[in-house]
Design goal:
This protein is an alpha+beta fold. Helix content is 43%, strand content 20%. The protein has 15 helices and 15 strands. Strand 10 and strand 11 form a beta hairpin. Helix 3 crosses helix 13, helix 5 crosses helix 9 and helix 9 packs antiparallel against helix 10.
Length: 470
């Protein structure tokens, strides 16, 4: 249905040409800018005006609500100071380490493989003859190159590289790891056939002395002990804080903690522990601020938790007039300057509409800019986005009059935009026409489908199960 509706959208050639001409249209304008700053020296504000503004806008000049909290904390760092490491556990860890190192031994081996898949008896006779050649002094790698049926290693003289436990089939691995360096094995049978194995070299991981490893073991044991203690202490902290919601005293006594107090902080800013957003949110929560209870355990980090309660609360209050008088004065001067700039702009606008030359109206505090062939996206050419936006909203004046528009600038001040000329494109590239057509068709298809869906919904009987939204 969606495709059927979308595919019926169409646009005429006339529409495409008209829209493309609008897109490619340029304009010649003149801009007179009245900067409020240039009118501020003439603006004056009385003490009574400052007072009136303050009383009418007191909510804009408020000291934010703030609190000071008491808190207790548990950190892994503080717990680790009292941990003693068992020497027996260090010894056990070192023994386990030695066992694991020996299990990581690697052996460099070569082999000769004779496949037994076709004729097992013939394969056995063949491997026995090759073993006899080697025992009589033949070079193992040359024999492997000439006779081994392992395509991966035969061309390398049978070299298999370094092998660790678990990398080869069991019969092969058992024979290899029972051999001595330089030896050639007896005949070994595996699922692949018959093997002769030569052990070329052995290497093991370097064993680190206990005096060095003990630091690693001590750290690991301490971390394990601290993690367990931190969990137990955190649970105890949560329990005591909940059972004694009106004070941190029981928590301090039970866990031998020290209560600390923050400086004042607001909902949006704090120092120390209050720099944490979660701490500030909970400090101003209904439980802590509203009911005056201890907070739940707050996790600052995986190794740092706290419980807090309100020490002192200072509600939001107006800043005294003396503290904001200069700010209000500056604000009122800016507003007055803007009014004066607007009044000056309106006077000049009247003169332009009466036919006076624009150039003759440039005075102190007024700057002029003339822009030719301005495009809709020529943002870099204008001093304020509102100038460009309004320049393309203006219609040419009737009866040969000048079209002029007063514009409030985003950067402050006022501008008069004078539309001198609208320039239509002489020709439009086919690629531009195709792009406009594609965009218009897409917009029409979306609009048509939305209208169809709205009509269906309007005429349909729809039952809603409101219980699922409660």
């Amino acid at each position: 249905m969606q495709s059927a509706i979308a595919n019926t959208a169409f646009v005429t050639k006339k529409e495409v040409n008209a829209l493309a001409e609008l897109n490619e249209q340029t304009r010649d304008i003149s801009v007179l800018t009245f900067n409020a700053v240039d009118f501020s020296s003439d603006a004056s504000v009385t003490a009574e005006e400052i007072k009136q503004y303050y009383e009418a806008n007191t909510q804009r000049f408020m000291l934010p609500e703030k609190v000071k909290v008491d808190y207790v904390e548990i950190t892994s760092e503080s717990l680790s100071e009292n941990i003693e490491v068992s020497e027996a556990k260090i010894t056990k860890m070192y023994d386990d380490y030695l066992a694991s190192v020996s299990g990581r031994e690697e052996r460099q081996a070569s082999h000769i493989l004779i496949s037994a898949s076709d004729d097992k008896a013939a394969a056995l006779i063949k491997i026995e003859s090759l073993k006899q050649e080697i025992e009589q002094g033949a070079d193992f790698s040359e024999v492997a190159s000439q006779h081994s049926q392992d395509p991966g290693s035969a061309s390398q003289g049978g070299d298999l590289g370094w092998i660790a436990l678990g990398e080869m089939v069991k019969p092969f691995e058992q024979a290899l790891f029972d051999m001595k360096k330089g030896a050639v094995s007896e005949i070994v049978e595996s699922q692949f056939g018959y093997h002769l194995i030569k052990l070329n070299d052995i290497r093991s991981e370097t064993v680190v002395p206990l005096a060095v490893k003990r630091y690693e073991f001590e750290e690991e044991l301490k971390n394990d002990a601290v993690a367990s203690m931190f969990y137990d202490q955190s649970e105890h902290l949560a329990s005591k804080a909940y059972e004694n919601p009106d004070s941190l005293g029981a928590v301090v006594d039970a866990l031998a903690l020290k209560a600390q107090t923050t400086d004042f902080f607001t909902r949006g800013e704090g120092k120390g522990i209050a720099a944490n957003k979660k701490v500030r949110e909970i400090a101003f929560s209904p439980l802590v601020l509203g009911q005056g209870s201890n907070s739940d355990v707050i996790e600052i980090s995986p190794t740092h938790v706290i419980v807090l309660r309100i020490n002192e609360h200072v509600p939001a209050a107006p800043i005294p007039l003396e503290g904001v008088s200069s700010k209000i004065e500056s604000l009122l001067k800016t507003q007055a300057a803007h009014k004066q700039a607007t009044a000056a702009a309106l006077k000049v606008k009247t003169k332009i509409e009466a036919g006076e030359a624009i150039e003759s109206l440039v005075t102190d505090g007024v700057s002029m800019q003339t822009l030719s062939a301005l495009k809709r996206d020529d943002m870099a050419k204008v001093s304020d986005p509102m100038i460009l936006f309004n320049a393309f909203k203006m219609a040419p004046a009737d009866n040969a009059k000048v079209s002029v528009k007063e514009v409030e600038l985003m950067k402050g001040g006022v501008a008069l935009v004078v539309l001198n000329k609208v320039n239509m494109p002489e020709s439009i590239a086919q690629s531009q026409l195709d792009q406009v057509k594609s965009e218009v068709l897409r917009e029409k298809a979306i609009r048509d489908f939305s209208s169809a869906v709205y009509a269906i919904q309007k005429d349909a009987d729809i039952d809603k199960n409101t219980r699922l939204t409660d």
